[in-house]
Amino acid sequence: NSVFEHVVRGPEDPILGVTVAYNKDSSPLKLNLGVGAYRTEEGKPLVLNVVRRAEQMLVNDSSRVKEYLPIVGLADFNKLSAKLILGADSPAIQDNRVTTVQCLSGTGSLRVGGEFLARHYHQRTIYIPLPTWGNHPKVFTLAGLSVKTYRYYDPVTRGLNFQGLLEDLGSAPSGAIVLLHACAHNPTGVDPTPQQWEQIRQLMRSKALLPFFDSAYQGFASGNLDADAHSIRLFVADGGECIVAQSYAKNMGLYGERVGALSIVCKSADVASRVESQLKLVIRPMYSNPPIHGASIVATILKDKNMFQEWTIELKAMADRIINMRQQLFDALSTRGTPGDWSHIIKQIGMFTFTGLNSEQVAFMTKEYHIYMTSDGRISMAGLSSRTVPHLADAIHAAVT
Ligand code: PLP
């Protein structure tokens, strides 16, 4: 008998499990709209040309070695990442009161930030939106924080429940941490307007609530890197403190390279340097130091004016294709006269559409049409193409009629 005989089988991850089911389906019609990864019109994964070029340069540079990075990662990468998210002219950067550490993509940045807060911040409660990316509650609970939710999405309007959000943050205890999606909220695709962001900022600052931004889609939502960082820069501009987790998975297509950054904007350079010393103590026993390849690709691109420019063009092309898929799906449902209001498909932004389809309708579409998505009715627009839109529209039409 195994000493592990008592181990019970764990459940499949609700998001990654969709791909497991998809892979088992032998139908030629099958369509995977579950996982949040970009696909071309041909349905293929995409490596950006500028990324290929950066990798070539790295390979050809024989002076490069495979030594360990420092605990906090690649120095250039950290500096450039802070500039990218906070803005090149950010006073917080000029004042040296931002500490940035390279982490294992967005997830790792959230985890390190969460663990730092659990050890050193006076409030251990983090408020996350309802709903949110399914990994958030797990990451923060394991980091040692206590997780509560605030109202975010209104299923009736398929838009923001702004009143509920203000009420819930208004009644949160002073000092509580609040997780905010910087843009392209996952899974709903619903973001506050700039005016609403300003109201959220005022409320949070008046109650000393600590903003923890999750930025997984900078540039991927609107096609513009600065526009997609607006919410974060609003909070940094008032001189207050905040935390930002950045991912390069989607916007540089570096998913499997696991490259991201955690920035903590502090009140002074002195505090920032002490915070960094404690971040190192979180990271060292967790994974010692981060991997070198992905961060070198990012630094190579961000450092070079031409490569940066090339990146923004490729990034905008990805964002535009997704926006175009929204329009095509909306038009296809209109043509079919599918009952209901589907305007949220073109109103929501980012990688996902929160369709409003319920779990029975999703199960129906999987069984009858071989279309795979999470059971909450979230579809990845990035997994769709002109060729597959009619099939999806037929399936949605059949599911709701
Ligand atoms: N945060 C949100 C809201 C996400 O949607 C994702 C990825 O889907 C992540 C963080 C983290 O992704 P990664 O760890 O691949 O950077």
TrEMBL record:
Pfam family for this entry, one: Aminotran_1_2
EC identifiers of the protein: 2.6.1.1
Cofactor(s) listed in the protein's UniProt record: pyridoxal 5'-phosphate
Source taxon at top rank: Eukaryota
Top EC class, one word: transferase
Cited PROSITE patterns: AA_TRANSFER_CLASS_1
Keyword line: Aminotransferase, Pyridoxal phosphate, Transferase
One function term, GO molecular function aspect: L-aspartate:2-oxoglutarate aminotransferase activity
Annotated Aminotransferase class I/classII large domain residues: 30-396
Gene Ontology annotations for the cellular component aspect, listed alphabetically: cytoplasm
Reaction equations catalysed: L-aspartate + 2-oxoglutarate = oxaloacetate + L-glutamate
NCBIfam families the UniProt entry points to: PRK09257.1
Leftover remarks: In eukaryotes there are cytoplasmic, mitochondrial and chloroplastic isozymes.
Family of the protein in this entry: Belongs to the class-I pyridoxal-phosphate-dependent aminotransferase family.
Subunit-level organization: Homodimer.
Protein name as annotated: Aspartate aminotransferase
Lineage of source species: Eukaryota, Viridiplantae, Streptophyta, Embryophyta, Tracheophyta
